[in-house]
Design brief:
Blueprint (H helix, E strand, L loop, with lengths): L1 H4 L3 H8 L4 E3 L22 H10 L12 E4 L2 E4 L1 E7 L3 H15 L4 E7 L1 H9 L5 E2 L13 H4 L2 H4 L11 H12 L3 H18 L6 E3 L9 E2 L16 E2 L6
Parallel strand pairs: 4-5, 4-6
Antiparallel strand pairs: 1-7, 2-3, 8-9
């Protein structure tokens, strides 16, 4: 939670995406009606993060502005490697912004850039400390097994953060088996709350998507899912490009 409080998501959205993005607070898209709107985005709060770190025993004992803690008789510095894609440059700049924010609370972040396939491979092998990555979504009902079930961690799947226990696995199975929407939503909210409380990942944002169609086409229907339009519905109104 302290790490999440030290991630300046609002600043990143304003500076690098020109405000064209929406905050994500849980594992369910805020565009979906089953999203729990009572779970709010965590603010950027250095003071609160410092308090949580102090309470957990992470303090700067030697005055080098990096927190440390005695673990099994060894002084361990609060330092970790943050892996990210080497392109585009904006991604690296965002990660540098996160690094600078972490240092305000005495946490040292080492940036490791990798090409996309190498990063995905490392994440599947659990060969990373922290990684900057993204996932896609659709307008269909969510099946949380792939990203959040413990079986997807032990099998080299895409539960990269290793979240979960018997209770969350049971909840994921119940959601997958429940067809009735009114019964399904409370189960989703319970799983959302589990993930929100543990903060195994830092929920950041998803960027707005721009879709453009020429005025010579009519009957355009825009959709949440890619490519964002129903191409077979297009009606040619004019053969000219004026």
């Amino acid at each position: 939670r302290a790490i999440a409080l030290l991630t300046p998501v609002d600043q990143i959205v304003k500076q690098f995406l020109l405000g064209k993005a929406m905050r994500i607070t849980t594992l369910v898209s805020p565009l979906k009606p089953e999203h729990d709107t009572t779970l709010h985005a965590l603010p950027f709060d250095v003071a609160q993060a410092k308090k949580l770190l102090d309470d957990a025993g992470w303090k700067d004992s030697d005055g080098d502005n990096v927190r440390d803690k005695m673990i099994d008789g060894v002084k361990v510095k609060f330092e970790f490697e943050l892996s990210c894609p080497s392109a585009p440059k904006t991604t690296v700049d965002i990660v540098k912004t996160i690094k600078d924010a972490m240092y305000q609370a005495g946490i040292l972040v080492d940036i490791k850039t990798m090409d996309g396939p190498a990063l995905q491979k490392a994440m599947r092998k659990h060969d990373f400390d922290m990684a900057f990555s993204g996932v896609g979504n659709t307008s269909l009902p969510d099946d949380f097994t792939q990203l959040w079930a413990t079986s997807s961690w032990t099998s080299g799947g895409t539960n990269f953060c290793g979240f979960g226990n018997a209770e969350s696995d049971k909840k994921i199975a119940q959601i997958a088996e429940t067809v009735d929407y009114e019964k399904r939503v409370p189960l989703i909210h319970q799983l959302e709350k589990m993930v929100y409380d543990e903060q195994p990942v830092i929920f950041m944002y998803y960027p707005n998507r721009k879709i453009v169609s020429h005025k010579r086409f009519g009957n355009t229907i825009y959709t949440f899912d890619r490519p964002g339009v129903l191409l077979n519905n297009f009606k040619l109104l004019s053969a000219t490009s004026d």
